[in-house]
Structure formats: structure tokens, C-alpha cells
Write a structure and sequence with these properties.
- The protein is α+β, with helices and mostly antiparallel strands.
- The chain folds into 3 domains: 31 residues; 281 residues, Beta-galactosidase, Chain A, domain 5, CATH 2.70.98; 203 residues, no CATH class.
- The protein contains 13 helices and 20 strands.
- The chain has a 9-stranded antiparallel sheet with strand order 9-10-11-12-20-17-16-14-15. Strands 4-5-6-7 form a 4-stranded antiparallel sheet, with no helix packed on it. A 4-stranded antiparallel sheet has the order 8-13-19-18, with no helix packed on it.
- Helix 4 crosses helix 5, helix 6 packs antiparallel against helix 9 and helix 10 runs parallel beside helix 12.
- The longest helix is centred in the first third of the chain and has 24 residues.
- The protein is elongated and about 100 Å long.
Length: 545
């Protein structure tokens, strides 16, 4: 009987490889289920978060006008200034430059009809941001009030707008300055007058909820997640990404940054006040709008209450966010290996500046990463080659001790020791490469630079899947060739199973963004040439290296 026939299917090396692969796979999926639960589980009914009683806008706490006020209102055109409140028919002031356009409403001075003029949606229409239904983005109101605060609007300059509102003896002045060559707005809010009953003021970020597509974990839609982002806490920097349909149980205190957005674009507020607001992230099950509401409480009574914050409505670009406010780069979620991902993003931008093509930049970045991890790959190949050399001895040990597992294991460990071989040496170097590859996966899946960016020929959008599945097929072929030429100690049955895996993975990853499949294909192609070089007959040179 031949040695192959007596060899166990689950030899120690195969068991180690299976365990390590399973741990990585299960760990990755567990993290993804935690971050994006609605892609793997039934969508949870979202519950709105109750703020402390003094912050809740209820019918009992709603500010109402006394009956005698109606007779004391002095009319002036469309504007009516009463003893207790400014009443104004909704009007708008329009702003537009080469980047963004929107209308400022007199109701809360919220923004309506926001358009990002340099970008298109997937249907190639001008990209809209925020929500035009209900409360408008960046609307200002008084705590305990449900109806919108009315402002008398005036334009003080090309990029400077002011609104004044009178309510219950208080005067609210809101000044908005749109920054030039930016997606940023600087907002100052001043409340003076009779502030005895003032609890605080609110502002709100609202966004229309887009229908979800069931693309699975390995698809272009896997990154297309609408989510809240809250950077909060004073003792330490805490950040939380919350998907829209996730129920939130607690408000977030001492908020530095609050944002609401999607894969490539965001709407954010950066606090610049001494007052640290609370944030309440809400998505109602029966609503088409997600809301992130901020509460600025007046803690110390005084004659004046001042609030200052910066607003941002634009792309999730590292450079643009950093130019607006250096802390805004926290909004981009590159996952657990974010520090590595940001470095790779900068390198990708460098290669683009050199080549002028993002597809070419991806190819150069992929080759650079493969060269950087070459020492670990070399160590892996060295271990695999050494294991293949002692494979006949391993088979002999298994044959001699086939009825005594303890003796067999002791003999195998002694053999590894005599030949100075680590039985899992071929797997560990691969695991050391995973942080880099996971980080690169996140960069290519979320980089705004790839959004609707063409590469060559049929690839018109590196952020969308290959329309003709050419890259996924090439990717599958390279994985198949790699499996075929890799050194192996597996028996024929194991080898057949391993030959099926590239085909399975190719089907699973067929709908990934083109930028990602390009990276995997080039990485696999490099791996083929690398294996052909390392596994040629000059083995002694490889081991010495």
C-alpha cells in the first residue's frame, strides 16, 4: 500500500491552516455583523432616543402665544413683529458658487435644495444632500418648542447671511458665513434679552433615507451604508459609527463632531463653543428621514447665550475634510486598521499625481504593497519548501505510528525540531500581511477619488462593479493558477478541494467595486510570478535568501 493511501486527510499542517483560516473568516464576519448588522440580520425596528425631560419637545412644553398677543401685532409687509414672537411667511435666500448651491429658509434658517454641483448620483443627476421634508438641515430652534423658529433674513455680503427672530422677549441672531473654495459654513448664534426661561437651543442634521440594496457582504453595495457618526466624550476621544436602522439607547454627551452621511458624502457639525452639546440619533421606523439632533444647554444663567459651530456638506475626501477642519477626517471609517489605511490613501494620491489615472495608481500601489510584504512571503515559501522536503519522513512516521497517536505526534515534533522547522511557519507570515491588505481593501472601497472615475476601455467607474465581469474572471483565473503552482503537501483529495475554492471566491467577489477587483487581480498576478521565481529548481538560493 502506498504512503498516499495511508496519509491522513487532516494532517497537522492542514488542521493548522483550517483553524487559522476559520479564525480570520469568523473574526472578519463577526466584526462586519457588528458594524453593519442589517446586511446579515433582519433589520431592527429603530427606536427614537428620549432626551432628558427638559430637552424633550412635547405638547406640554410647547411655547404658545397668549390670546391678547394677536391684537398687539404690528404688520409690516409679509413680516409681523409681535410682542412675543416674530411671525413671517416662509421665504428663501439663495446661495450658489462653483461647488455648492442651496436656499436658506426663514424657518429656522435651515438649508433646502442642497446640491453638490461637482458630483452626480448613480443616475447621473446632480447630487442632492440633506432632506427637504420636515426639519431642514442646520435649522435652529429653542428647546421646548415644536414649531420652527421664524427669522427675518438679510444678506450682508456675497457669502454672509443674517437672521433675526423675536420670541417671548428673547432675540435670536444667527449669522452664517459660507467659506470660499470650500464646502464649509461658519455659524454664530446669539440669544439675548429675557433669558430667565431659556433652557437652550437646538440644531438638527437631517437626511433622506435611501432604499437599501441587498448586495451581500462582498459587493459594491456593501460599502454603501448610510450612518451617523458621533465624536464625543471629554476624558478620552470616543467615536461611534451607527447605522441608520440601529436602535440607539442613550444620548451622546460632550459632542465634538456629529455627522450624518453615506459612503462618499457627509453632512457634519463641528462644535466650536464652550458649551458642549448632547446628540440624539434617531431613525423612526415609519419615517423616510434620519435625524441627528444636537442640544446646546444653557447651564449658567446670564444675559447672553452664544453658540459657535462649523458646518460641512460635501465629499468624504481626506484633503478636503482636513482643509475644512483637521478633526473632520475622523468621519471616514477605515475600520480597525485605519492608521495604515490613511497612509495607503496618501500613497495612492501620490501615484495618481504621478500617473494622472486612478486605475494606474491602484496598480502601482498594489505592486508597492506586494514588495513591502515580500520578506514575509519569502519566509512563508521557505517554510513550505522545507516542509515539502521532509514530507516523505512525515509519511513514514505516520505509517510507523498509525496506531499510536501520542508516539506519532512526539516523533513529528522531534522531526520539526531536528530540521528547525515551524509547522505553522507557512501560515503566520500570511497572517502578518492581513492588516495591510484589509486596510487597502477599505481604502479602495471608500475612496471618493474612485467615485465615477474611469480607468480604461469598459471600466467607466472604479467605484462600481465591472459591467462585463472581465476583472472578476481574470481574478479567478489568477487565483486558480496560484493554487495550482503553490508548493503543497496535500493528498489528491485535498488538492481537488483547494482547486474549487478560487472558482467559489470569484463568484462571491464578482460584484465588488472595479477598483477592488483590479487590486486583487494585480496582486494575484504578482503572486504568480513570485511563486514561479521562488519555486524554480534553484531551491538552495531561495533558502539562503
Amino acid at each position: 500500500m502506498s504512503n498516499n493511501q495511508n496519509q491522513s486527510f487532516l494532517d497537522p499542517k492542514t488542521i493548522s491552516a483550517i483553524i487559522l483560516s476559520a479564525l480570520v473568516f469568523l473574526g472578519w464576519n463577526a466584526w462586519m455583523r457588528t458594524k453593519y448588522p442589517h446586511l446579515t440580520n433582519d433589520v431592527k425596528k429603530a427606536a427614537s432616543v428620549e432626551m432628558p425631560k427638559q430637552n424633550v419637545e412635547s405638547e406640554e412644553s410647547q411655547v404658545s402665544l397668549p390670546q391678547e398677543t394677536a391684537s398687539t401685532i404690528a404688520k409690516s409687509g409679509d413680516v409681523e413683529i409681535g410682542m412675543n414672537e416674530t411671525v413671517v411667511n416662509e421665504e428663501f435666500l439663495h446661495f450658489e458658487d462653483q461647488r455648492i448651491s442651496f436656499d436658506i429658509s426663514s424657518k429656522g434658517m435651515g438649508l433646502k435644495n442642497i446640491q453638490l454641483k461637482k458630483y452626480k448620483d448613480r443616475e447621473m443627476n446632480t447630487l442632492h444632500a440633506g432632506s427637504n421634508e420636515g426639519t431642514l438641515p442646520f435649522s435652529t430652534n429653542i428647546m421646548g418648542r415644536s414649531s420652527a423658529l421664524n427669522f427675518v433674513l438679510s444678506k450682508k455680503g456675497d457669502r454672509l447671511f443674517e437672521g433675526v427672530s423675536e420670541v417671548n422677549g428673547m432675540r435670536v441672531i444667527k449669522i452664517m458665513e459660507i467659506k470660499e473654495d470650500s464646502y464649509s459654513i461658519d455659524t454664530v448664534l446669539k440669544v439675548d434679552g429675557h433669558l430667565e426661561n431659556l433652557v437652550g437651543v437646538t440644531t438638527e442634521l437631517t437626511e433622506k433615507i435611501h432604499p437599501k440594496k441587498s448586495g451581500g457582504m462582498l459587493s459594491a453595495d456593501r460599502f454603501n451604508i448610510q450612518e451617523f457618526f458621533v465624536d464625543y466624550g471629554t476624558d478620552k476621544d470616543e467615536r461611534k459609527h451607527i447605522v441608520h436602522d440601529e436602535a440607539n439607547n442613550l444620548p451622546y454627551s460632550n459632542v465634538n463632531i456629529a455627522a450624518i452621511g453615506s459612503q462618499y458624502f457627509t453632512m457634519a457639525l463641528v462644535n466650536k463653543s464652550d458649551v458642549m452639546p448632547k446628540a440624539d440619533a434617531v431613525t423612526k421606523a415609519d419615517s423616510e428621514v434620519a435625524s441627528l439632533k444636537l442640544y446646546f444647554n444653557m447651564l449658567n444663567k446670564s444675559d447672553v447665550f452664544n453658540i459657535h459651530y462649523g458646518s460641512y456638506i460635501g465629499p468624504k475626501s481626506l484633503n478636503i475634510l482636513e482643509a475644512s477642519n483637521e478633526n473632520l477626517v475622523k468621519i471616514i471609517d477605515y475600520g480597525f486598521f485605519g492608521s495604515i489605511a490613511r497612509i495607503l490613501q496618501r500613497v495612492l494620491e501620490f501615484f495618481h499625481n504621478y500617473t494622472g489615472n486612478w486605475g494606474a495608481a491602484i496598480i502601482l500601489l498594489t505592486l508597492l504593497v506586494r514588495f513591502l510584504v515580500l520578506p514575509t512571503a519569502l519566509s512563508s515559501y521557505k517554510s513550505m519548501k522545507n516542509m515539502s522536503k521532509i514530507n516523505p519522513l512525515l509519511k513514514d512516521i505516520k505509517e510507523r505510528h498509525k496506531d499510536d497517536p501520542n508516539a506519532r505526534n512526539q516523533a513529528m515534533m522531534q522531526l520539526y525540531k531536528d530540521h528547525k522547522i515551524n509547522p505553522v511557519g507557512g501560515c503566520l507570515p500570511t497572517l502578518l500581511q492581513l492588516p495591510v491588505f484589509f486596510a487597502l481593501y477599505q481604502v479602495l472601497g471608500q475612496s471618493i477619488d474612485l467615485y465615477q472615475t474611469p480607468f480604461i476601455f469598459w471600466i467607466h467607474d472604479l467605484s462600481a462593479k465591472d459591467p462585463y465581469y472581465v476583472l472578476p474572471v481574470l481574478m479567478g483565473i489568477t487565483m486558480l493558477v496560484q493554487t495550482k503552482i503553490s508548493p503543497s503537501t496535500m493528498d489528491p483529495a485535498q488538492a481537488k478541494i483547494m482547486m474549487i475554492m478560487p472558482v467559489v471566491f470569484a463568484f462571491m467577489m464578482a460584484n465588488l467595486p472595479s477598483g477592488l477587483t483590479l487590486y486583487i487581480f494585480i496582486s494575484g498576478l504578482f503572486g504568480i510570478f513570485q511563486q514561479l521565481y521562488f519555486t524554480r529548481d534553484r531551491e538552495a538560493k531561495v533558502v539562503k535568501a
